[in-house]
């Protein structure tokens, strides 16, 4: 891995990250063997449950056979981005605070989706320019720097944001959350995500950048130009944490921390959109086997998301043409997870219903 984590000796959070992640390994193969055997005995044609079987098998492997996903929740990290000074978004930076407040007051889309699916929801202010409220504020600083002028943050601030994600996730796991989704809110964060993805995938900026929350063609071209200039000014990059520190955002890093903490505790973690998958990419530079513990939800409209998903071998379960963020894809997957687990755990076996498994042909390898 080109951008593998390299600890800086004198930095507190670097040492914490190295020690915390040292014990995270690949999911054990024997649990995959066990669940394959169990599913082969279900009284249906082989592979008849399609993606529901795929999803259940992944969760079984993550949880080492102790499947329990009855308390899902989403962590939404709110942060402002200094790169907005370069005109990469049509929305004023005050939008970050306003939508964050709307979430706290139950007025945002993610609140409605969470209410319908009955999942938990927690908002975390990691870098909003204006404090949301004291109870949800765990701030690194008031927004990041404009990465056209200087690195978005220091490495120590980047480590701090990532550790906030770890610790907030640990807190939720201790409260019983057993299926965790990743969400965010921050004007300009599709720009920071595209910059991070471009470097870590070593892809041309033009292939990664999308229209975000909404840009005209002039704004889109400006966004590409800004990212190119920013990458040029901030290169070279030492490792994934350095990339995120120089051109990323606190939300991306906190999400990376959530992915890492979930892997540490064998809790399935759900990817939302492009900011979420940028966080996953940063996490992978620290924990190479992190993808063993994640579940993609929907296929974001942002091209950067699609490039990362393909590179990491992740196949989203839904195609909604969504580009909202907030963690909005996660409740849909929570619902599918619940249905899949109930179905497969309660499905009759061949010997129980008078059917013979040998009468069925497995056609999956033909497709």
Automatic annotation (TrEMBL):
Pfam families: DBI_PRT
EC id: 2.4.2.21
GO biological process: cobalamin biosynthetic process
Pathway given in the UniProt record: Nucleoside biosynthesis; alpha-ribazole biosynthesis; alpha-ribazole from 5,6-dimethylbenzimidazole: step 1/2
InterPro entries assigned: Nict_dMeBzImd_PRibTrfase (IPR003200), Nict_dMeBzImd_PRibTrfase_bact (IPR017846), Nict_dMeBzImd_PRibTrfase_N (IPR023195), Nict_dMeBzImd_PRibTrfase_sf (IPR036087)
Domain of life: Bacteria
SUPFAM superfamilies in the cross-refs: Nicotinate mononucleotide:5,6-dimethylbenzimidazole phosphoribosyltransferase (CobT)
CDD domains: DMB-PRT_CobT
Keywords tagged on the record: Cobalamin biosynthesis, Glycosyltransferase, Transferase
Root EC class: transferase
PANTHER family named in the record: NICOTINATE-NUCLEOTIDE--DIMETHYLBENZIMIDAZOLE PHOSPHORIBOSYLTRANSFERASE
Biological role stated in the UniProt entry: Catalyzes the synthesis of alpha-ribazole-5'-phosphate from nicotinate mononucleotide (NAMN) and 5,6-dimethylbenzimidazole (DMB).
UniProt family annotation: Belongs to the CobT family.
Protein's name according to its UniProt entry: Nicotinate-nucleotide--dimethylbenzimidazole phosphoribosyltransferase
Organism, as annotated: Vagococcus fessus
């Amino acid at each position: 891995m080109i951008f593998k984590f390299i600890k800086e000796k004198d930095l507190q959070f670097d040492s914490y990250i190295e020690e915390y992640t040292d014990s995270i390994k690949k999911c054990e193969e024997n649990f995959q063997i066990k669940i394959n055997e169990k599913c082969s005995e279900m009284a249906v044609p082989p592979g008849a449950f399609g993606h529901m079987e795929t999803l259940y098998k992944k969760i079984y492997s993550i949880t080492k056979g102790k499947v329990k996903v009855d308390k899902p929740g989403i962590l939404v990290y709110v942060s402002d981005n200094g790169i907005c000074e370069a005109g990469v978004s049509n929305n004023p930076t005050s939008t970050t605070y306003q939508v964050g407040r709307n979430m706290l007051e139950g007025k945002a889309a993610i609140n409605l989706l969470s209410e319908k699916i009955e999942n938990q929801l927690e908002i975390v202010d990691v870098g909003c320019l204006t404090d949301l409220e004291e109870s949800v504020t765990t701030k690194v600083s008031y927004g990041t720097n404009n990465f056209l002028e200087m690195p978005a943050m220091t490495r120590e601030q980047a480590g701090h944001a990532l550790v906030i994600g770890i610790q907030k996730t640990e807190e939720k796991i201790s409260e019983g959350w057993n299926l965790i989704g990743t969400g965010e809110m921050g004007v300009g964060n599709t720009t920071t995500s595209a910059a991070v993805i471009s470097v870590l995938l070593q892809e041309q900026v033009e292939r990664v950048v999308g229209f975000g929350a909404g840009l005209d063609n002039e704004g889109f071209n400006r966004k590409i130009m800004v990212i190119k200039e920013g990458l040029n000014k901030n290169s070279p990059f030492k490792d994934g944490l350095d990339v995120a520190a120089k051109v990323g955002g606190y939300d991306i890093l906190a999400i990376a921390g959530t992915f890492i903490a979930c892997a540490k505790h064998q809790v399935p973690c759900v990817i939302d959109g492009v900011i979420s998958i940028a966080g996953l990419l940063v996490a992978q530079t620290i924990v190479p086997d992190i993808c063993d513990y994640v579940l993609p939800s929907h296929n974001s409209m942002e091209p950067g998301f699609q490039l990362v998903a393909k590179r990491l071998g992740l196949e989203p379960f839904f195609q909604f043409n969504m580009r909202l963020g907030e963690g909005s894809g996660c409740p849909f997957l929570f619902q599918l997870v619940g249905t899949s687990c109930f179905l497969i755990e309660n499905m009759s076996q061949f010997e129980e219903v008078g059917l013979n498994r040998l009468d069925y042909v497995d056609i999956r390898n033909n497709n």
